[in-house]
Amino acid sequence: MQLDFAARELTIKLVYYGPALSGKTSNLQALHRLADPGSTGRLMTLETRDDRTLFFDLLPLTFKSAGGLSIRLKVFTVPGQVIHASTRRLVLQGADGVAFIADSRATETDHNAESFMDLKENLKAHGLSLRQMPLVIQFNKRDLSGIRSDEEIAGLAAQGREPTYLAIATRGQGVVETFIGLLHLTYGALDAEHDLGKKFGFDADELLAQVARGLGSERLVAELLAACVGGALDVLRPEVSS
Amino acid sequence: MTHAGEAIRSTDEIAFGAVRLEELVDRAALTEMLESFHALFEVPIRVFSAEGKLLAEVAPPLEMYTYLGHFRPAREAVQQVVQAVKHRSLEAGGEAAERCVTGARYRVLSITYDSRELGRAILGPFVPAELAQPPEALAALDPGLDPVELARLFAAMPHARDERIAAAARHLLRTLDLILFSGHKALLTSNMHLASVRESYRELEDKNAKLQEAFDRLKELDRLKSNFLATVSHELRTPLTSIIGYSEMLYEGIAGEMPNEQREFVGTIREKGEQLLELIKGLLDLSKLESGTMSLTKANLDVGPIVADVAQTLTPTARKKGVSLAVSVDEALPRLWADAARLRQVLLNLTENAIKFTPAGGVVTLSARVTLMSAARGDDDGGGMVLLQSRRPAIELRVADTGIGIPPEERGRVFDAFYQVDSSSTREAGGTGLGLSIVKRLVEGHDGTVSITDNQPRGAVFVVSIPCRRATIS
Question: pLDDT exceeding 70 applies to what percent of chain B?
Fold first, then answer.
């Protein structure tokens, strides 16, 4: 996160993490398509010759509040392929929130788990723990066959901590829900830690509503948040040291 | 964690860093682009950074302004307009028009990237096409201004239709946006490359440190093992000497005559005891050599007699196996500064080995000749001879056999302690696998080298080179 009091600007870094080919870039492409042109710049993709992400994709989103405050959201993806371990760690640096994009196919279960452990390790390398990181999980590719059932995912998600969403990123389904869920947790945690509301005059509800509108959603933020099939939407609070 | 800190800085730049126009575009190339723009639209153009620094311009001097420059009020009025144009406040992404006293116009464009203003482009001055005459106010600025001259210069100024300039402005911003995006992308890519390289380097350093730690620990363990071996061998030797001594006395009948069968058994005990003693001595030698506590008693000596002695000692063994033992020692070999007993041990060991691995009817050849010491290692392919050959003479001792030979990939390892090319050969040929490692260490104790080459048509040659003392050269 970066606060520029003079320019009345808040910059938040969000990272889409997950195994190779789980649809992280597809999520960003969908967000880019949905966002109104005034709010987003070009989707920057640093890719290899075979269209796989080499370093990262970067989608800049900018929202201006009525009070003249700017919220700049920098949405990154990490390269999923195993060989890009150090790049993933670099991209994760300074992340304020993480969306974990999992592949719904039953055969990908192990890859999802491996990538999640990798996320955990890389957070540890930055001196962070999963507990401190606002995190949502998306089960993508719901349109494919051989996927784990809605009931199975909902059952597991209900036992877990992280808000979990179902999506078909290539069709834009579940993409905004995931993003709003992530922003809700991330902004909430930053606000709790830095008291943005008081110091800066940001209003969390207004911000989320504005982002949802900017992403072309007609639905209320509460509805979008409620799309999660399990996990808790409670905002992380900094631990009070005794 | 200094490296990680640097990496954080560069990725933070990627996430949050505000880019600057002058970082993303090359000034010379920008000027070229503006020239082409000017050629198309014939309107002066300037690009300023966010701080108001002129980055590029294509604006041929206009005679009108040179002329006005001679009249103070006119000059001041023009300067006022220029200041207004430069400092005009603009919304990000917006544009504004400014009028000049000459009737010409300026169009001020905000160059915006990622919702931030990076700089400005100023088009103009140009005269709107519909304006045929300079405004009357211009001539009124100073009584000295000549209306006829003003009209002439006015006509010579660039004229353009407003819509055309608006289209040109859009085109310019589009082009700049493309350049900025590409430049930004390239900047991020190179930053990421740098950060990745730094991160990989840091990872490697971490790994190296861990490996070094593991290596140090292993070295320490190895040292402890050698110490242990030395202690144990020493302690084993004492009771064993008694066992051998007493069985020898029994065998000799000192404690009274024994029936033949008993005597034979006692003989076996003694024989095996001696084998065990040899083995323990070997272990002790090895551990002493490894820990560097082996002391060599060096003296100036002739190699010839040692070779002859070894051959003589092993002739019975060779004969028993049906292997012939040949000796070839060059005449007038220089003397060697060496430990006679240890040198003998080296030769004895190599020759014994050679006999062991040579089938009946084969030949083992022991030879000694003078050569020049090479700085090249044993695995060298013989290149760079002219550079590597030292002027120091050495004595080369060769033990050649006609046995099964040693495959090239095994040649480095046969000198490792306890190593056997084929463990099944141990049962067949006997031996502990200590001999060659002792040989190597003893030779190294003489600053020499030992290597293996092929014997033609079959078999292996162990080549021991020991340098003569420098003093013996002259």
Answer: 87
Question: In chain B, how many H helices and how many E strands?
Answer: 14, 13
Q: What is the pLDDT of residues A200-226, one digit of tens each?
A: 777 888 889 999 999 999 888 999 999
Non-local CB neighbours of B173 within 8 Å, separated by 6+ positions: B109, B111, B121
pLDDT digits (tens, 9 = 90+) for B101-130: 899 999 999 998 888 889 999 998 999 998
What is the residue whose two structure tokens read 């001020």? Answer: B108
Give residue B427's Cα distance to chain centre. 44
Q: Which residues of B touch A59 (CB under 8 A)?
A: none
The answer to whether A94 faces chain B, any CB pair under 8 Å, is yes
Tokens representing residue B227 in the block: 């110490």
Return the residue matching tokens 């041929």.
Answer: B60
Per CB-CB distance under 8 Å, the chain B contacts of A58 are 14, 188
Q: Is the omega angle on the peptide bond into residue B457 within 30 degrees of 0, that is, cis?
A: yes
Which residues, in sequence order, are CB contacts of B190 under 8 Å at separation 6+? none
Q: For the whole model, what pTM was predicted?
A: 0.69
DSSP string over A78-128: ---SGGGHHHHHHHHTT-SEEEEEEE-BGGGHHHHHHHHHHHHHHHHHTT-
> What is the rounded CA–CA span in Å between residue A222 and residue A226?
6
Of B162, B99, B123, B106, the closest CA to residue B44 belongs to B123
C-alpha B190/C-alpha B184 separation (Å) is 10
Q: What is the ipTM of this complex?
A: 0.81
